[in-house]
RNA sequence: GGGCGGUUAGCUCAGUUGGUAGAGCGCAACAUUGACGUUGUUGAUGUCACAAGUUCGAAUCUUGUACCGCCCACCA
């Protein structure tokens, strides 16, 4: 008997070695030679491809439990399809993660007593680049540690030269097609990070703030933001509001305001909620999205009140230069002194838009930015989903996706950060026009003849990530693009249902006329043992690499899969993983027993002289495998794994092997031989079908029971 | 304000098309020195949130209620 089988299974000495064997074998590449699979007579899926593009993990740090989950899921799908004879391609990647990485790096700078605002853009970029490249290595090593059978020869980084160039080309193409425009529109501004943000990069936070009622001429207006009211010269009410019938649209009223007398204009607009406050409000189009829309509709003046650092501008008179928080009480005090404060509601609860990273209150600003016109693009995406060209797992994400698509507004793709793909455009400071300029040839403004400078902004990271399936496969030309696009499955977290998935659908359809993937598989959050969200502040973060070093990666993978249906969040308990470590050892010992107790009997793949008892055992196993195959085909990996676990331990080991002890020790040579053949057969089926879930253990055992044979990774999936 | 998901054993959760309720961990008792103690055998614990309905039959389908969680949203 083989020496290797005498000890308990030790994942720590096995996993690295096995992964190296796989990587060297070339079987992660779909082109690798596989005799049975390359023959249409032995491979029912001959010539078919199966493709997954890996959501590129952030290159700025280490893997977390969520990464381990998605790598496991995608690896299961890839290994399963590979064993079924498909040319299975899984392309790994690394994400520069623009804004996110820049924030990580800014924190590092802060610790060192430095700040990005004093640095040359180029120097900052180079520093972050070096930082990212260093961390990228750890990330990749950890992806390997999870067992990812992805094709490293095709790995892409989101700042690879061709990725940058193609992203910039898309920008130009969209501009030429009228789908990208430079607009002076209201945007989300983070005063801490000094950049604009898209709508999906902001969150709402419930805050209790005072709500003030001020006398504004004959009206009483309600506001939670008195500090923006300096420039307010439009007073708005609903056209159907009978309380204000006597006032007409466009009517001018002289009144006393914060810094003296002003002339206000009455505006009637249906955006006003008659039930809210007094039904009358003044507007600040420069610093509020609703107000901006009203001003657009009626062609009203817009004036900035607050600068990009969050301080009041000279229009605020004596308050100029003050930060919002300092200015607010002083302004209220002054209005009160002038007798214009009517009352204060101290318990006003409302949602305030904040930066999703630092929770700083968003100060909306009007700014020249590049925008993607979403309506026509979204229409095509909606059509594709309605025609069932894209399937969602679980299905309810389809509705969520469609709702978002139907309601999405134009997308601001300009970011005032250096860490990203630069926007290849020239900007005219005189008339603020902008023109894409891929070749850096434009110097004068076509609108006003003014001098043009290079745009210093970078793309929103989702602008390039949205094109990821095409970029990775070498669009617009190349064999990979022809062979593997559209891809099969996009497996990603449900938190990316808006940030990423819709952009990919849009870009896929726009660039190639094809959907980028047939199926979207959403996984949930990996929570702690109590089902609570993992967070550094709670101290309940589970490091997958650490856990795996204790129990084995196969055990962690099983722990992540079993009991975790698509779309729902899961709880990761250490005890659960320990249980699967025990299972790995069980499989190890089953193999030991079968080899030991059948010494001298060679497995015969064509053996048919089974006793009726063994024939029925074989049928039982065949039925199970049919069932499991159906689970695999329908993305019920959690069920497939659990059934295999149960069969292997509680049927094969606890019952069949126990019964076999007497048979194998007995005198009935026919029965003995038949059972030995069945046990070998069952072991092989179990190892094969467990392989997508527990690749290291099963590959190791396969090598031991089948010395000199081919690797398990390319064995055919059991079909009986 | 709108939408989605959940509510099943002490804990974490499965339960694919409706057919006498499951897993892991935990718990109790027992067993066992050669496949494995990272073990085995046996067992206890559930009006499947609540109410009504459809059905021969509902954890599963329908409607409503309650609570929990998540997401979306231009509530001045």
From TrEMBL:
Taxonomy, superkingdom: Bacteria
Coiled-coil features, chain-numbered ranges: none
The protein's enzyme class: ligase
UniProt keyword annotation of Cytoplasm present: yes
Gene Ontology CC, one term: cytosol
GO MF annotation, one: ATP binding
Residue ranges of domain Methionyl/Valyl/Leucyl/Isoleucyl-tRNA synthetase anticodon-binding in the record: 614-718
Pfam families linked to this entry: Anticodon_1, tRNA-synt_1
Transmembrane recorded as keyword: no
Protein name: Valine--tRNA ligase
Species in which this protein is naturally found: Candidatus Vogelbacteria bacterium RIFOXYD1_FULL_44_32
């Amino acid at each position: 008997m083989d020496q290797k089988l005498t000890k308990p299974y030790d994942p720590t000495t096995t996993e690295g070695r096995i992964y190296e064997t796989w990587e060297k074998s070339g079987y992660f590449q779909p082109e690798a030679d596989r005799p049975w699979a390359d023959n249409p007579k032995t491979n029912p899926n001959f010539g078919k491809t199966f493709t997954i593009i890996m959501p590129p993990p952030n290159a700025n740090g280490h893997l977390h439990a969520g990464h381990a989950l998605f790598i496991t899921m995608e690896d299961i799908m890839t290994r399963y399809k590979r064993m079924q004879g498909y040319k299975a391609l899984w392309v790994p990647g690394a994400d520069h993660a623009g804004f996110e990485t820049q924030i990580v790096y800014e924190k590092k700078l802060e610790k060192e007593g430095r700040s990005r605002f004093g640095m040359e853009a180029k120097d900052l970029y180079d520093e972050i680049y070096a930082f990212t490249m260093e961390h990228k290595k750890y990330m990749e090593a950890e992806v390997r540690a999870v067992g990812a059978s992805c094709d490293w020869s095709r790995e892409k980084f989101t700042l690879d030269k061709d990725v940058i160039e193609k992203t910039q080309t898309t920008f130009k193409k969209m501009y030429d097609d009228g789908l990208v425009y430079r607009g002076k529109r209201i945007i989300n501004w983070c005063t801490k990070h000094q950049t604009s943000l898209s709508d999906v990069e902001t969150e709402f936070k419930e805050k209790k703030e005072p709500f003030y009622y001020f006398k504004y001429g004959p009206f009483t207006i309600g506001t939670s933001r008195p500090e923006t009211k300096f420039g307010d010269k439009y007073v708005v009410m609903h056209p159907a509001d009978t309380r204000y019938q006597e006032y007409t649209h466009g009517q001018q009223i002289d009144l006393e305001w914060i810094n003296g007398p002003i002339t206000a204009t009455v505006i009637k607009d249906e955006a006003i909620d008659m039930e809210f406050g007094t039904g009358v409000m003044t507007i600040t189009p420069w610093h509020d999205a609703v107000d901006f829309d009203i001003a657009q509709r009626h062609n009203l003046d817009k004036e900035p009140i607050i600068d990009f650092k969050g301080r009041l501008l000279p229009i605020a008179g004596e308050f100029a230069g003050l930060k919002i928080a300092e200015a607010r009480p002083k302004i209220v005090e002054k209005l009160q002194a002038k007798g214009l404060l009517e009352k204060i509601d101290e318990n006003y609860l409302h949602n305030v838009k904040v930066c999703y990273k630092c929770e700083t209150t968003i100060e909306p600003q009007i700014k020249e930015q590049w925008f993607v016109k979403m309506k026509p693009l979204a229409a095509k995406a909606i059509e594709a989903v309605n025609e069932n060209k894209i399937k969602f797992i679980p299905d309810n994400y389809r509705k969520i996706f469609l709702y978002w698509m139907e309601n999405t507004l134009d997308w601001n793709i300009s970011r005032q950060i250096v860490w990203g793909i630069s926007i290849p455009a020239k900007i005219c400071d005189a008339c603020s026009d902008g023109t894409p300029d891929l070749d850096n040839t434009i110097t004068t403004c076509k609108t006003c003849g003014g001098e043009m400078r290079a745009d210093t902004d970078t793309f929103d990271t989702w602008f390039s990530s949205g094109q990821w399936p095409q970029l990775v496969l070498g669009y617009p030309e190349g064999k990979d693009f022809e062979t593997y696009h559209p891809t099969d499955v996009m497996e990603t977290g449900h938190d990316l249902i808006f940030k990423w998935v819709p952009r990919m659908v849009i870009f896929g359809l726009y660039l190639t006329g094809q959907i980028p993937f047939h199926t979207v598989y959403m996984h949930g959050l990996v929570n702690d043992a109590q089902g609570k969200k993992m967070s550094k502040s709670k101290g309940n973060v589970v490091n997958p690499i650490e856990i795996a070093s204790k129990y084995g990666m196969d055990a962690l993978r099983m722990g992540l899969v079993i009991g975790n249906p698509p779309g729902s969040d899961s709880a990761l308990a250490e005890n659960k993983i320990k249980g699967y470590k025990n299972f790995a050892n069980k499989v190890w010992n089953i193999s030991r027993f079968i080899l030991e107790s059948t010494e001298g009997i060679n497995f015969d793949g064509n053996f048919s002289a089974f006793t009726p008892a063994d024939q029925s055992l074989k049928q039982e196993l065949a039925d199970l495998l049919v069932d499991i195959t159906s689970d695999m085909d329908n993305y019920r990996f959690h069920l497939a794994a659990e059934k295999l676990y149960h069969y292997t331990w509680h049927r094969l080991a606890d019952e069949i092997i126990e019964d076999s002890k007497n048979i194998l020790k007995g005198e009935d040579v026919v029965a003995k031989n038949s059972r030995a053949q069945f046990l070998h057969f069952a072991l092989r089926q179990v190892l094969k079908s467990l392989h997508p879930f527990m690749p290291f253990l099963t590959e190791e055992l396969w090598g031991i029971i089948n010395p000199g044979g081919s690797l398990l990774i390319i064995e055919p999936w059991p079909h009986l």
